[in-house]
Amino acid sequence: MNRFLSLIRNLIILSLLFCGLSVGAVIYYIEYELPDIDALNTVQLQVPLQIFTKDNQLIATFGEKRRVPVPYNEIPQPLIQAVLATEDQRYFQHNGVDLPGLGRAAVQLMLTGKKLQGGSTITMQVARSFYLTRNKTFGRKLREILLAIKIEHKLKKEKILELYLNKVFLGNRAYGVEAASEVYFGRHLNELNLDEYAMLAGLPKAPSMLNPLANPVAAKKRRDHVLSRMYDQGYITAEQYKKAIQAPLVASYHDLQTEVKAPYAAELVREQLEQMYGDSIYTDGFRVYTTIDSKLQHNANLSVHDHLIKYDQRHGYRGPMTNFGRPDLDNMEEWQAKLRKIPSLDNLEPAAVIDMTPKTLTVMRATGDLVILPWPGLAWARKQINADYLGPMPSRTNQIAQLGDVVRIMLVDKDYQLAQQPKAEAGLIAINPQNGAILAMVGGFDYHASKFNRMTSAERQPGSSFKPFIYSAALEKGFTLATVINDAPIVVENPTDNSLWRPQNDNHKFYGPTRLRTAIINSRNLVSIRLLAMIGVPYSVNYLQRFGFVPSQLPAGLSLALGTALVTPLQMSQAYAVFANGGMKVVPFIIDNIRNTAGDFIYQAKPLVACDDHCGKDTVPAQRVLSAQNAYLITSALRDVIQLGTAKLAKNLGRTDLAGKTGTTQNQVDAWFAGYNPDIVAITWVGFDQPQSLHEFGSQAALPMWMQFIENALKGKPDHPFLQPTGIVSVRIDPLTGKRASATDPTAMFESFMLPYVPDDEAPVDSDIIAPEDNPDDHIGQPYENDMQESQILY
Known about the structure:
The chain is of the alpha+beta class and 795 residues long. It is 33% helix and 16% strand. The strands form 8 sheets. Strands 4, 5, 6, 7, 8 and 9 form a 6-stranded antiparallel beta sheet that branches. Strands 2-1-3-17-18 form a 5-stranded mixed beta sheet, covered by helices on one side. It has a 5-stranded antiparallel beta sheet with strand order 11-10-24-23-22, with helices on both faces. Strand 13 and strand 14 form a beta hairpin. The longest helix is centred in the first third of the chain and has 32 residues, at 2-33. The radius of gyration is 37 Å and the shape is elongated. It starts with a helix and ends with a strand.
């Protein structure tokens, strides 16, 4: 008996020793062999890139996974209760492993021979999702259990639940409960009802099969099961349960809702970020704050849309997209299905004509709704026969459309009207001339129809909007705005092929001796060419680099004076900013700062600022590239372009602080307007992607677009005058000769000069050229005969 008892004692001791060693081995394994879970405190979930305006309005999101992490204290309590009731009802009682749950899973395995239940707690699911695979093996389950114990030892219950609810996949690219709320209901998590929380809580079991988009019947059944569990466990009352279970399933797919429409700007930011950080931008949760102003961007969108539509309508109706045949009003579902396959373009939606009267069309939208188009919204649609001729204005609807025609319509105020997708394109870019920040950007009529950004990538000829840079180069050489140059015929010979070039003014008239200010105001081509010949093409090409242009864009010939360079609207905005800020070269930029998911700054822009001698401590001053006096004189002339010249339509804005220049290229292929005040530079462009004539000048196609934008941009803001720098003096001059006027000259006018270039000579009182009595200042501007003797210039 003693020997037997001794054997039993030894066995017990050995068993205890073995258990101790086993426990020690498990503890060692947990501490040293399993992954370190400290990183869960600062885990970086895969969060898509988000791009915002400078005033915190969402522009775009980029990334495969839709996820919006939410801290535990912002997760609604009903959702937490629904998840616990369904997934882990003893979550706050166990230490990571629910032994009864594991027991039930073991019994199920023994009875069926299949691993139908895993008995996993929420903590075990967190361990699996962050560190393990989903393969159902005993080895993985053991590691899952041990990891869950380790996680519970290191993290609070609330943190574990937060990780789970932000990590879990809930179908349709939605990861985490906030993203799922936005995908299925189009609302934030804190805006949902009890039945909607229950539906979300039921998704983790089988998100691809139980989601309401894939299987509404199964989703509702699963939702009702969650509600039943919540009621059984006392989370909700009988009244709440009854109301929630009777609620209809209202889920539908909701795409990501942006707050500001700026797709061209968003794509530019994405491209720059990818160059800076690589593909990690799509998962690291970057929040990028741009320089885009949401109000200015909205105004830019409207300006481009409205005026490109107006341009298109001025040039006639090209007819329907297709025809569905005779309508069968008792069976229109097929037509609706066809309409849904035609994408809407910038608020131009497809519709089919199903009825007509002499003065109205009734059309069906893709939704099945019927809309009546009244005559005022149809009368513009005279037939476009060819590029140069439009048919007579229609008097009846049967001259516009037929039954079954598929057309586009748009909502204007409260009425729909006939529309069509413009064939021409347009764009607008606005920057802050004091630091180069891009405030608004529209790269085309519709981003989904064409992703090509014409503001940053389309190199087009700027036409006469380029002339101010040639005149600035001339001022630098000692010319003045009072310098007189003959507006007379020119023939330019190209010795390489013996060809002759005979440039013209746009109205094919010649105006004789013309002051440079008048030449800028009225955009005189021949004066500009003679001026460029005088100052020299090589000098001018070198000078133009001050504004950001590069030699490869600039033709080394006299046509440069007419704007035959190839430049982008973005470059033009940078160049005009030099005039707007008084002579300093800023660099356009669009990314202001980048923050991580914790809100910490990982990048902050440090732009060049046009601050001259009054720069702040941390400010990087922009380089001065031309004198303040030169910039002021060009601005003075460009203000007169609006007050007196080719852009005098903009005078209707009633402001005195605007300056700008129209631009139209040969055969009216491109139309521009470049305008500014000290606070904003805006460039508008209209043209075809495949160059062809617009049959309109810049003052007709581009200027009204600029006016609508700038009027809204400066609404409520007082005039901001351009300050006259030191070194500028005003002198009375003879308007015919540009020389200093005598004290008794009744026709004298004031002109501004840089001090070194004030005219010394006085004009003779008895000049042979007599100005018209009704307007003595505007003799230069009266047409001369076209048979004036040509001057020949060697190219």
